[in-house]
Write a structure and sequence with these properties.
CATH class of the largest domain: Mainly Alpha
Number of domains: 2
Number of helices: 17
Oligomer: single chain
Bound molecules: carboxymethyl coenzyme *A
Helix content: 40-55%
Mean pLDDT: 93
Shape: globular
Low-confidence stretches: none
CATH architecture of the largest domain: Orthogonal Bundle
Strand order of the largest sheet: 1-2-3
Radius of gyration: 22 Å
Number of strands: 3
Distance between the termini: 33 Å
Length: 392
């Protein structure tokens, strides 16, 4: 079957060309459409960054207002789609609820699923950006048994999401601008990261010409895994385990280094960043600011800082070039904001959505795109003869 090269985990195989996100893992550089992540984190907003990723340029004031206006007209869910949430068990994890609801969008918008019709792709893009925060908030409300709030389209995307998540009917929800800004920043930092596991999934599913909703739903499922987006939840669970355990932080690190029961220091290491993760550098300061304000020196933050301190000075981590990644601190921030642990990966999904959309659109618009179909190296039996069951 010709020459095939084995590259499990695709550590050295480019699956596409892309003009969206640039990463230099050795230098710790991340840019969206050429703009350094540090500048976007400081000066842009999630909605503007979404526009940049999807359309390739920063919007003019008119373009931005139009984009926001269109999104705000599509934030509501079809009443029948709302019914879906009642079908899940009360303790359902919000990630599979999120992917199921996004998959179900294909059934509600059957007239706009053609990947090659620009207008249909455009309206699907707007619907996804508008509805995912509503779906996410409802997944949470369902899990705590509270009523769903309709979106309030006078609010920004992030304000609306916070109100639908934490607000209750007939009671004013006071919007804390610092909280809005912090959530917005976290979403910007997660907005794209080139060909990671979930984005590659979105592209691979989309390469069969599956529609945008189907492709993004698959991406959400890929993000759910603990080695990918699930890591922020895993970090917090790890910190809580250490806090309650009868072993010390230092003893935990010994377990990690001895690879006891396959335990890893969650929130450390990255396939591409071998120097530092620039997102982690930005988020670390935010973590300290927010935790100082809300929890007054949270004990879990102390454990996290001790883990980091040990790791950065230890040969095991130095030799393997393991540094804190974006997820090492985000869990602590989300927790102090009042999000339950199970919502952490949902927040990652909200942030990554514009990246998935941008990458799917780039793939569909590229005339050289072929269906993704990796090869394999077969290591099974050679040809052998069938033996009837009575003779085995
Ligand atoms: N703790 C302890 N050892 C580790 C860790 C860790 N977090 N990460 C990697 N190693 C070791 C690994 O055991 C291996 O050691 P050895 O050479 O002795 O076999 C070596 O470092 C190389 O690791 P790898 O698994 O071959 O590296 P990878 O590029 O396949 O994996 C990773 C990258 C992110 C999956 C991995 O570092 C990991 O599992 N980290 C913890 C989970 C995590 O934080 N994930 C979030 C990633 S950032 C956000 C996102 O993109 O989702």
């Amino acid at each position: 079957t010709g020459n095939v090269t084995l590259d499990g985990g695709f550590t050295n195989t480019a699956s596409c060309t892309s003009a969206i996100t640039y990463i230099d893992g050795d230098a710790g550089i991340l840019r969206y459409r050429g703009y350094p992540i540090e500048q976007l984190a400081k000066q842009s907003t999630f909605i503007e960054t979404s526009y940049l990723l999807i359309y390739g340029e920063l919007p003019t004031p008119t373009q931005l207002a139009e984009f926001e206006g269109r999104i705000s007209q599509h934030t509501m869910l079809h009443e029948d789609l709302k019914g879906f949430f009642q079908g899940f068990p009360r303790d359902a994890h919000p990630m599979p609820v999120l992917s199921s609801a996004v998959s179900a969008l294909s059934t509600f918008y059957q007239d706009s699923l053609d990947p090659f019709d620009k207008e249909q792709v455009e309206i699907s893009t707007i619907r996804l950006l508008a509805k995912l925060p509503t779906i996410a908030a409802y997944a949470y409300k369902k899990s705590i048994g509270q009523p769903f709030l309709y979106p309030d389209n006078n609010l920004s995307l992030v304000e609306n999401f916070l109100r639908m998540t934490f607000g209750v009917p007939a009671t004013d929800y006071e919007i804390d601008p610092d909280l809005v800004r912090a959530v917005d920043l976290l979403l910007v930092l997660h907005a794209d990261h080139e060909q990671n596991c979930s984005t590659s999934t979105v592209r691979l599913v989309g390469s069969s010409q599956a529609n945008l909703f189907a492709s993004v739903s698959a991406g959400i499922n890929a993000l759910f895994g603990p080695l990918h987006g699930g890591a922020n939840q895993a970090v917090l669970e790890m910190l809580e385990r250490i806090e309650k355990a009868d072993f010390s932080t230092d003893e935990f690190m010994t377990k990690v280094k001895n690879k006891e029961d396959g335990v890893r220091l969650m929130g450390f290491g990255h396939r591409v960043y071998k120097n530092y993760d620039p997102r982690a550098a930005i988020i670390k300061d935010t973590a300290h600011e927010i935790l100082a304000k809300t929890a007054g020196g949270d004990h879990l933050l102390e454990i996290a800082m001790r883990l980091e301190e040990i790791a950065l000075a230890d040969d095991y981590f130095i030799e393997r070039k393991l540094y804190p990644n974006v997820d090492f601190y985000t869990g602590l921030i989300y927790k102090s904001m009042g999000f339950p642990t199970r919502m952490f990966t949902v927040l990652f999904a909200l942030g990554r959505l514009p990246g998935w959309i941008a990458q799917w659109r780039e793939m569909i618009e590229d005339p050289t795109t072929k269906i993704g179909r990796p090869r394999q190296v077969y290591v099974g039996e050679g040809e052998r003869n069938y033996v009837p069951v009575s003779e085995r």
